[in-house]
Amino acid sequence: MQDTECVAFLQWALPKLHMRWAGFRKIRRRVCKRVTRRLKSLGLLNVFAYRTYLETHPEEWARLDEVCWIPISRFYRDRAIFDFLAGTAFPSIAQAALAKGSRCIRAWSAGCCAGEEPYTLMLLWQLSLQSRFPDVKLEVLATDIDASQLDRAAEACYPFGSLRDLPAPWIELAFEAREGRFCLRTEYRTGVRFQQLEIRMKLPDGLFDLVLCRNLAFTYFDDALQAGISKALQERIVPRGVMVLGRHEALPAGTVGFREIARNLHVYCSHCS
Question: Buried b / exposed e across 178-204, counting CB within 10 Å, b at 16+?
Answer without folding.
Answer: eeebbbbeeebbebbebeebebbeebb
